[in-house]
Each structure stands twice: as structure tokens, then as C-alpha cells.
Amino acid sequence: MARYEHLLSPLKIGNITLKNRMLNSKCVSSDEMEPELSGPFYEHLARNGAALVCVGVGALPDCDGNYSRMAPCHMDDPKSRKAYMEIIDKIHAQGSLATASMMAIEPQNVMISDVPDWNAIPMTGDYSANLFEKPAISAQRLEGMIQDFVNASVYFKGMGFDGVTIYACYRGSILACSLSPWFNHRTDKYGGKTMEERATLTLEVFRRIKEACGQDFLIECQTSATEEGGYTLEDWLGYCKLCEGLVDIFQIRGWDGSYTHVNSHNLQKSNPYNLQFAAAAKARGIRCAFSPVGGFHDPDLIDRFIAEGKCDCVSMARAFICDEHYYDKIKAGHGEDITPCLLCNGCHGSFCAVNPLAGYHHMLDRMFHPTGEKKKIAVIGGGPAGMRAALFGVEQGHDVTLYEKSGTLGGQLKFADFVDFKWNLMDYKNWLIREIGKSNVTVHLNTEATPELMKKQGYDVIIAALGSSAKRIPVAGAQDPKIWLAEDVFGHEQELGHNAVVIGGGDTGREAALYLAKAGHKTTLVTRGDAKLFDDPHSKRATELDYENEPNFSCLDNAKTVAVTPTSVTLDVTLNVPKLDGDFGMMMMMAHKDGAPSVMPDSRPEGFPPRQEPFDPHAAFAEENSEQPKGPGGPPPMPQIDKSKLPHETRTLTCDSVVISGGRQALNADAFHDAAPKVVTIGDCFYPEGIRNCNNTAYAAIMQL
Q: What does the alpha-carbon distance between residue 347 and residue 323 come to, in Å, rounded to a whole number?
């Protein structure tokens, strides 16, 4: 039996055949909102294995006949229409099919019905901020919205699309809310106490699209299988049964109330999200294709799930993005060679941490112009930046030697071996090491690459991937060598004693504190802000649960460190700071823990275009001169807390050991300035920003030679 036989087998849906069992769950190109530029991105998705590509046209039935309203382009614009038709042709040329995305979401400023008691509704899902009080949509406007769905579908079919992908999940649309007993209190034909009654609206949309476009025009429905405190799995299974003959594919995106944009904090790769719901539907024999989404990256697991009848196919996005040759590696039977996804959700911001080419397919021919001349290259440093530069170098035909002063490769990623929730980084490190071992890179371990050695070897290019060093905070006593740095506790935790204080509420500090607590140490995390307000909205709740469920862990917020000794921490603690709700909404989830907007420095090296600002759908769809709706469920204003006006107290914590997490500083590569004709710094040596920076700078360094 061939490896991945089931994953690569065709999927027949009525008279339609998909080339394999891998579907694209809507990806975001950096130029998606400029369709004339996004063709190469969608072509890449199809070429990289997606049998069904969902094109993000953003069609929004708005109940007023403007079914094609988009941001910022308009489907009736000849330029946009031509661009999308070219995208469809590119997808079809790869043997894949294309659907157009459609949604009926809150910019209409209406709800499916009035909500009697907003305070009773659990509001912990990703889209809770969209659900503030709005007037109920009239039956007349609802009928207009249904017709808009039909009109848009007919329009898309005329352009060449093979179907539509309709958004009906996460409480993020009127269609999703219509299924919910929390939100649908209508007394007309579109409401009722049972799921069958509440399903009338979506069934009518599906039925009329099929009548207008034909049975072979695919309808893919993005759905949530359960709702927090609302409809149950059994309700949803009954709904799916009602959709037989109407919905061709159910893309199961998650249950409302979950933080469904998965990452390493809330996902184990052996148990991807939503598989259980697809398996339940398959066990009922419901005649639709079921395609779960949420962390499906491992082709061996996916193949097994399909073989076991737990799903018909899987919907993926990140897998297609993080490896330019994902499909080729699967067809060759080498799934272990696939670049691991870090589950960092950077692709929500139109970039990929491990693939520097993601989102730039339309401009690759203009970004770099390698001479093709073979160079003798020394890469100094065996961390993620150095290893990736070495691999890029041999791919371009250069003679590459990698120097690492320690006995193992991995750099800062070696610490991921100690932390169970860092399994994604451990996988990435191990993949890099395997790839180095299979490549033509010459590796020298336990070798310090001095300027003298580099001169003697006569390298054309030196790529300095020296990394960074941990910083100590600028307070009295922090320079004492008896005070631990966060990176040094891993593997030495038994030397810290029972009680530990960790200073610093960033990622490293939080993770070190949780690691020590899970290892049995009574651990206090000290942070100047609120440790529960994370920069990453999708890991926020998962990490909160770690905090709440770990008995050895405690956190002291709003505490400025004044002085430290090896066994004590003196703090200036601000009292009576208003506690911000952990479910403050999307606005606050994107806020910095100090209350200031998060701004990431742009460390993109020469050759990469400037970072694009994230697309704001609310601003794009906002009506002119409209006021933001207000009500009991409305988003609160951004808090502005002046801590200087609040009372303070000095507090001293005693402990067995103090751990400092004060950030990182780049190591200086100036010593190598004259050691070769060309010297380039990359990774943390260029700017300490993380894996994305490592890969971007490594790729740019090689491609500029």
C-alpha cells in the first residue's frame, strides 16, 4: 500500500470529483484585497495540494441588494471581475476547484432577533465582540438577504467558480446566530424553539442557491458543531441531516466559545480540533462530506483518520503556507520532510514565521536577483537562523560550512525540549537538524569560529548568526551572578529550591514560571502590567487556564521591581488597579499588557517590502456617518489607567531563588568585519525578534549574493 493512499485518493461528491482529500480553509494573501495581485498566491495553494480553494472575495449580502459589496474592490468592477476570473483559471489549471466565500456578518448592524438578556449569554468565543445589541432584522430584509445570496451565487457561477463557501460559524454571522437558541427568538417562520425551526433560514439559502445554480454547483458550509450553553452536538447532527442534498461539504471550524485558532497552547498534534464532530456525523451515515479544520498538518495522521472513516477530507490553511513543496513531499511519500508549522497564527497577519515567501508570490521575480555564482560561505552559529541560512545556501548551489561552538545544534530552540507546551518549536528544531544532516552542509561542532580562522579559510561570505544574550533588568542587585536568568533554569530546576520568584511577564517569563510550577516549585510571577492580557489573542484563554489550574503558580500584577537579591525581591506595587476581564473582547485582546497598542518593529531585511497593516473589516464595511452601536453587550471603551494617581505600597517577597526574564540583546558581529569580503548578520544577531526574523533574514542573506 502506497503511503498516503487515502489522503491522495479522489473524493467524489455527486457529479463532482476532487483530486484529493485536502481542502483549503480560507487563506489570507497579503494582497487578497487587490485581486489583480493575489493570483500567484491562490495558484500556489492549488499547486501545493488544495483540491478545493476558497477564494476570499468577501462577498457580503447586505439585505439591500448590494450582494457584491466588498473591501476595497467591487465585483461589478470590470478590473476586479477580470482579476478573479484569471485566479479561477489558475486554480483550474492545477486540477483544483474554486469556491467564492460569502458571509452575512454584523456590519449590517442588525441581529437575527432581539435578545432578552445579554448578561445571560456566555461570551467567551472569538467573535463575542461582534455581538453587541442591535435591532432585529425585519422579515422583508431577511428575504432580501436570502435573495442576495442567490444573486451572488449566480454571479459567481457565471464567472467560473465551481461553488460557494458560506460562513455560518462562531456566532460570527446572521446565519450562525439564526441556529442559536441564545440569539434566535423570532416568532415568524425563521425562528422557533427547535433546531429544525431555527434552521429554516440557512436551509432556504442553500435550497434557493441549488435551484438557481444547479445541483453540481458546490455549497460548502463553514459550521460550528456545538454552541456554548446553546445547541448541542445532537442538535447539530440533526441539522446536518436536514441539509442532505443541499450542503455538499460541511467544513467544521470549531465550537462556539472555544479559542479555535489553534496554537501550541491548546493543541496536541495527535488530536486535531473538530475531528470528533466529523466522526460523529460519519457514524450517523449523513450524506454530506465532512471536513474538519484545526491543526491538521501531519499527513500520516490525516491519512489514518480518512482510512478509519472519521472524516471524508480535511480543511487546511497553514500546512499549504508553511512549506512551498508540501504536496510534492506527500506525493513522494516523504511527509517527515515537510516544514513544521509553528502554530503561531502569523498567517492571520499575512506572513508565515517559517516560510519567508508566503504572501509574496506575486513579486518574487522582483525581490531578489541572485548572480548564480557559486560562493564559499561560512555560517557562524547553529541556531535556527544559522541552520536555515545554511540550507538556503546549499539549495542555491553554494559551498556552505556551518560552525557551532557548542556540541549540539539548535540554539535557543534547545530549551523547547524541556517545556511540553513548546512541542511545536521542538519539532521545528528537530526538523532543521534532520535537514542539515541530509544536506551538503559541512558542520563543525565544538568549534569557535574566530576571525582568524575565518580569514585563514578564505571565505567569500560570512553569515553571522551569533544569536542574542539575555538581558538583566536595570535595578539594584540584578547583576548578581547568583540571580538566575530564565534561560538557565531549564535542566537545572532542582538547584532553585522550593520557592521561586520569576520577574517579567513576557512570553519567556510566563513560560519559565509555568514550567517551574509544573515541576513542583511554588512559583510567583511578577509583572508590571496584567499578565492575563496577552499580545496573542488566540493563546490568551488557553494560557489563562494554565494559570488557573496550576496550584503551585501565582501572579503578582502591577508590580515594579525596585531591587533584588538572590533570595528576595523588593517591589513597588500599584494598588486598586481595575481588573480587566480576560474576555474583554477583540479590541483588548490586541492590546499590550500595559494598555498601549502593540507595535512590532519591522525587522524585514533589505529585499522584503514593508510590512502591510492588517486589514480592518469593520472600518472597511462601516457606513458613512454611522455611529457605533451601544448597548449592554457593546464593546467597552479602551481603558486608560493612570497608575501614578493610584495608591502604592512597597512589598518584599522572600524566596529560595530569583529568576529574571528581561528580554534579549543582539550579539555584536563587528569582530568579523574584515574576515571576509562580505559579512552579513542575521537572526537575533540582526534583531532579536523570533523565528520569523531568523527565516526572513536568512533567506534574504542568501538570495542577495
A: 13
CA distance 281 to 13: 16
Q: Give the other-Cβ count within 10 Å of 159's Cβ.
A: 16
Kindly state whether residues 307 and 336 are assigned to the same domain: yes
pLDDT per position as a tens digit, 660-693: 999 899 999 999 999 999 999 999 887 777 898 9
Cα(526)–Cα(85) distance, integer angstroms: 55
Distance CA 504, CA 478 (A): 13
In degrees rounded to 5, what are phi and psi of residue 13? -125, 100
- Pick from 140, 146, 164, 139: nearest CA to 75: 164
Domain limits for position 377: 368-470+665-703
In a domain, residue 203? The reply is yes
**Nearest-angstrom CA–CA distance, 375 and 677:** 11
- Domain identity same for 245 and 271: yes
Angle at 313 between CA 310 and CA 319, to 5 degrees: 115
Q: Can you list the residues of the chain whose pLDDT is less than 70?
A: 1, 27-34, 58-76, 105-109, 123-132, 255-271, 348-350, 531-546, 579-641
- On whether residue 613 sits in a domain, the answer given is no
Is residue 164 within 8 Å of 158, Cβ to Cβ?
no
Tell me which residue has cell 525587522: 603
Would you give the DSSP letter of residue 323?
-
DSSP annotation of 31: T
> For 255-293, what is each residue's pLDDT tens digit?
654 444 555 555 566 667 789 999 999 999 999 999 999
Report the number of distinct structural domains present in the chain: 3
Number of Cβ within a 10 Å radius of residue 586: 14
